[in-house]
Design goal:
The structure holds 2 protein chains of 2 kinds.
Chain A (H helix, E strand, L loop, with lengths): L2 H33 L3 E2 L6 E2 L5 H8 L1 H35 L2 H12 L6 H12 L4 H8 L11 H25 L3 H9 L4 H30 L2 H6 L7 H10 L4 H24 L7
Antiparallel strand pairs in A: 1-2
Chain B lengths: L1 E2 L1 E5 L22 E4 L4 H12 L13 H15 L2 E5 L2 H10 L4 E4 L1 H9 L4 E4 L5 E4 L12 H12 L1 H11 L8 H8 L3 H4 L6 H5 L1 E3 L17 H12 L1
Helix pairs in contact in B: 1-2, 2-10, 3-4, 6-7
The chains are: A mainly alpha, B alpha/beta.
Chain lengths: ~280, ~240
């Protein structure tokens, strides 16, 4: 084959994915970027294509949106920390304590919930946390007072932590697997206590795994609007919900685009931070 | 068409309420649910037009900035008491079924659905009156077969179809001749769904309309729907 034909072959292979990325992904992103600087005519509901900072001025001057952005980020951080804590013991067992057969079984069990619809799993939590749900039924059985967890930010925190736990667990298992056993042995031989081994050897080497997991737990929570809608209560609005209602109820796409851009910038900043901790260097 | 009614669980709230004041009452904190919709502002405005006449609210859909500020203040106080703002009728049905909500603003549809499911609820139009909705059929200007569309609309206007639709959704039919058909399908339903109601009943309902800048009194100081949307977002935070 001549070099020229080989080059043509490479190009032919690359055109479909890059064409897709360029047109559908970057294309829609740039439309989003543009429309954030437009406005909607109050009378006709038509989009007015005059350049303006008005959407951003409202976003940064009205405390409503600051409160919503802070809540979104705060819960995303809380979910990330919760999932890291929950994933540690199980990831350690799967990565280093069990044989290959049990390991496979455990990994399948972790991934199993992902085979069912996310909506079904969120609705299941409504049945668990509801006033006459499974949780209160159990509490009454043992003589404890009812809880009012349903439709609060606590419910949101629980459901998000549940939804994204597998995405934190998998990269952590991968990171813990890669730690050479010789390092742990060496630390032990030098007289380190188990806690010291964990603190100075295992934990630092697991940071890329936690960072990779947090990309899912943090970024995906920040962009979500379904869980706040279904299990949140009064005062559970996320940035995504404001975007959703501005597109749906209000027909104000430019304002929705402006808030989306703010969200995009926040997620991008987090990605850069995660990269510094090695989230994308693994494998 | 139908009103936005006050609905409550009769097992949890044994004295029947007569006023919208119950959904702004701290005694019911955590068991209240109201619709997640900017037009809900009109419900609060209607309530304030009775409790605070000095605000001068004559039409709950024509609010000036000072009137809107008073309404938003009331709704922000209410937020602390609200369990959940419902977006879908099925959401509210779930809230009452699970016992998370005891009282709230609803459509007759939810009350019917809940009663059919064995949940003890009651619904009324409180003493202040109620806001209401009237659904309509539309034909697209791009319709390829407008004549077929007109035939369809003629069909849905017939008493029998009106009666079936009214019973299915729990609404008042627009065609008053549907009354006899309703009673034939389900005895007593004509009266239950107000198909035989007097004009006084309908004038007690303030039907939804889009807020615009022009107030009814010739002034241009009223707030339009986009301002209502922003106000609602501030209420919900």
């Amino acid at each position: 084959m001549t070099p020229g034909r080989k080059l043509l072959g490479h190009i032919a292979l690359l055109v479909p994915p890059f064409g897709w990325l360029g047109i559908f992904y970057l294309g829609s992103l740039s439309v989003l970027l543009l429309s954030a600087f437009w406005q909607v005519d109050a009378m006709s509901g038509e989009i007015v294509r005059d350049w303006t900072w008005e959407n951003f001025r409202i976003l940064f001057s009205d405390t409503t949106y600051t409160v919503i952005a802070r809540r979104t980020t705060g819960i995303a951080l809380l979910v990330t920390v919760t999932d890291i804590i929950l994933a540690w013991p199980l990831a350690w067992v799967i990565a280093r304590k069990v044989g290959p057969r049990l390991k496979l079984t455990l990994l399948v069990l972790v991934a199993l919930p992902l085979w069912s619809s996310m909506l079904a799993r969120i609705y299941a939590w409504r049945l668990i946390l509801g006033h006459d749900g499974v949780l209160n039924w159990g509490l009454r059985l043992v003589g404890l007072p009812d809880q009012n967890v349903a439709f609060t930010n606590i419910a949101l925190w629980i459901v998000f932590s549940y939804l994204w736990l597998p995405f934190m667990l998998m990269p952590m298992v991968a990171a813990l697997e890669r730690i050479p056993a010789s390092l742990l042995d060496a630390a032990g031989d030098q007289g380190a206590t188990p806690w010291q081994v964990f603190r100075t050897v295992v934990f630092p080497l697991a940071i890329p795994g936690m960072a990779a997991g947090s990309v899912f737990t943090f970024a995906v929570t920040q962009g979500d609007y379904v869980a706040p809608m279904l299990v949140g209560g009064a005062g559970s609005e996320f940035i995504g919900n404001v975007v959703y209602s501005n597109v749906g109820v209000s027909g104000n796409v430019p304002f929705a685009a402006a808030f989306s851009l703010v969200l995009l910038a926040m997620v991008a900043a987090y990605m850069l931070l995660a990269r510094r901790f090695g989230a994308f260097d693994a494998q | 068409m139908g009103p936005n009614v006050l609905m409550w669980n009769t097992k949890d709230i044994t004295t029947a309420p007569t006023s919208w004041s119950i959904i702004y009452d701290k005694a019911y904190a955590g068991v209240i649910t109201v619709p997640d919709n900017p037009i809900q502002i009109a419900d609060a405005a209607l309530y304030l037009s009775h409790t605070k006449p000095e605000l001068g609210i004559t039409d709950p859909y024509e609010l000036t900035q000072p009137q809107m500020d008073a309404v938003v203040t009331l709704l922000k106080e209410q937020r602390a008491l609200v369990k959940k703002y419902w977006a879908l009728a099925s959401d509210e049905v779930d809230l009452f079924k699970s016992g998370d909500a005891h009282v709230g603003a609803a459509w007759p549809y939810q009350a019917n659905t809940l009663r059919a499911a064995g949940v003890p609820v009651q619904d009324i139009i409180p003493s202040e009156g109620a806001t209401g909705w009237a659904d309509s059929w539309m034909i697209s200007t791009h319709a390829q077969h407008p004549n077929c569309a007109y035939l369809w609309i003629n069909h849905v206007m017939t008493p029998k179809v009106q009666a079936q639709q009214a019973l299915s959704f729990g609404e008042t039919p627009a065609n008053t001749k549907a009354c006899a058909e309703m009673d034939a399908l389900q005895p007593g339903s004509c009266k239950q769904y107000h198909a035989d109601a007097s004009p006084a009943y309908f004038s007690s309902i303030k039907f939804w309309k889009t807020p615009v800048r022009q107030c009814g009194n010739g002034q241009n100081t009223c707030l339009d729907y986009s301002a209502w949307q922003r106000a609602w977002q501030q209420v919900k935070q």
